[in-house]
Design a protein that fits this description.
The structure is a single chain. By secondary structure, the protein is α/β, with parallel strands linked by helices. It has helices at 10-15, 17-27, 52-60, 64-70, 94-106, 124-131, 133-139, 171-174, 206-209, 214-218, 221-232, 267-277, 286-290, 310-313, 333-339, and strands at 38-44, 74-79, 111-116, 143-146, 152-156, 166-170, 178-182, 184-188, 192-194, 236-246, 254-256, 260-264, 303-307.
Length: 340
């Protein structure tokens, strides 16, 4: 059975419940989704020994509104700090975090804080030491806030896909002038990919929502990703793709030497660009489809490319069998966008 969307099968439709709901809304004559123009930078960085702060500084110069927010204010960097396994590239590398601290400080930030709420390892101090992130933070004269344990207050959910009505966040995050998502470039065994939007899962306090944020998993990972990002509104993303992870991510995959940082101020556009670098089609990622209704941009010709072209750095990331469809070109997507 095929729909009116140029070649999309019933199987594809079943994988896209949020997308088809949006399309139905458009067909009923309601407001159509309009993707805003966005920019994303892809910067080649071959190793963690390169001057990463300089690369991030050059990228920041392309986003004057981000610099304006940071200048004289508090910047919170949210890396991906999940678990530590010797020899596996699981977390955002300390050199990238240190480079971001230095770059934002050079851009005029009054304070740069590193904050994370690990979802697996409950001993955050041990995890900071084992991952060497503590050394990077101390070397850059910054400080760390454990988002699992920080003081919190509730924020109402406008999107409310989870039906939770509100999610509580750290006062440190809510008081920041600029929130920066700093994920690792990885595949994910439940969400397909884990990039800057999925990385914000770690902003939700484990002391309230469990480990690994169980309540949000029960309400649906994609639903939770969208509710978190729509309510918290992170401002910027720096994706550590110098070494990425393929296959059984986010913990047990294999290392890919992708050699890039992907940077921008529209997190959906950054993630769409990152997915293309991985050789995947972001149009098929459910939570990216859902973000179309909330200011997200994923269509390639709506994203102004800065730095390297995707063709120059594209890798072929391996995915689990259940996500092989992420590698299949969605020939139906142009008609789908027209419909919504």
């Amino acid at each position: 059975m095929y729909s009116r969307f140029n070649g999309i099968s019933r199987r594809d439709l079943l994988k896209l419940p949020a997308a088809t709901a949006i399309a139905a809304t458009g067909a009923c004559g309601h407001r159509k989704v309009s993707e805003p123009l966005a920019r994303a930078g892809v910067y080649r960085v071959k190793s963690y020994g390169e001057p990463i702060s300089d690369v991030i500084g050059r990228a920041l110069a392309q986003f004057p509104e981000v610099i304006r927010r940071a200048k004289g204010g508090t910047v919170v960097l949210k890396p991906n700090l999940v678990e530590y396994y010797d020899g596996w590239r699981v977390n955002t590398h300390p050199a990238v975090v240190a480079g971001a601290i230095a770059a934002f400080r050079a851009a005029g930030a009054k304070e740069v804080i590193v904050a994370e709420g690990p979802g697996h390892c409950r001993d955050t101090e041990l995890l900071l030491e084992q991952s060497d992130l503590q050394h990077a933070i101390t070397s850059e004269r910054s400080r760390f806030v454990d988002l699992n344990l920080d003081a919190i207050r509730p924020v109402q959910l406008d999107s409310n896909y989870t039906k939770l009505n509100e999610i509580s966040y750290s006062q440190t995050l809510l008081g920041a002038n600029l929130i920066v998502s700093m994920p690792k470039l990885k595949t994910h065994h439940w969400a397909g990919v884990t990039l800057s939007l999925k990385n914000m899962f770690g902003t939700v306090p484990g002391a309230r929502y469990g480990w690994p944020k169980n309540i949000l998993h029960w309400r649906g990972i994609e639903n939770s990703i969208v509710d978190i990002n729509v309510s918290l509104k992170p401002h910027f993303a720096i994706v550590d793709g110098i070494e990425g992870m393929e296959g059984d991510g986010p913990l047990r995959g294999a290392t890919v030497n992708a050699g890039v940082l992907v940077i921008g101020d529209n997190l959906a556009a950054v993630d769409a660009t990152s997915a293309r670098v991985m050789g995947l089609f972001p149009e098929r990622v459910k939570h990216l489809q859902m973000m179309l209704k909330h200011g997200g941009t994923i269509t390639e010709d709506k994203i102004s490319q800065i730095g390297e072209t995707i063709a120059q750095v594209r890798c072929d990331f391996r995915v689990l069998e259940d996500f092989q469809y992420l590698k299949q070109a969605p020939t139906w997507f142009t008609n789908f966008i027209d419909a919504i």
